[in-house]
Amino acid sequence: TLLPKRTEKYAQNKLVQRDIEFVREEMKKVNSVDDFMKNYRLLEKVLTAYGLEDEISKRGYIKKVLTSPIGDKKSLVNLVADDRYRQMATDLLFSTGSAAAKADSTLKKIEDRLIKVGVEKQLNEIAPGVRQAINFKELAGSGKIKNTYDLIANPLLKEVIFGARNYPDILKAADVDALAKTIEKTVDVERFKDPK
User: pTM of the entire structure?
Assistant: First the structure.
């Protein structure tokens, strides 16, 4: 398919390589979550890798999510509705210090995510909705969509549902349980478990 070729070409772009190298170099210097939060450009790149670039103004909230204990079901990271925050916190593991955030495996995840998000954004400029379609296809067969709340927790999937069912935007502000009940009336979540 075209996606692997486009991804390879995008990854070889000099500007993309420069961004990846910047992230690698700067993350190696991070000794605390405060170091990470103070480096605006680094924070911006990492947030972009997780699709959270629009959240950069919420730095206090981001810090609280990143430092909350992942093993505690009642901690903020496990209560946030947006799964992207949970994934970022799980990958960076600032709740246990800074070693995991500097690990080569973590830096590779961030690099791969930056490339993936960049390719998706390029494709979305050519054909709006492609990014949501790619993410939906990946998530649909991953086993991560077990119920309606899993759909609601992922902003891209939530957008797909709203677009496909023509739900009014006002419904986005509804209580999560009320939103889940509305979605369950018109969407068979079982079908989302299998992308075929």
Answer: 0.74
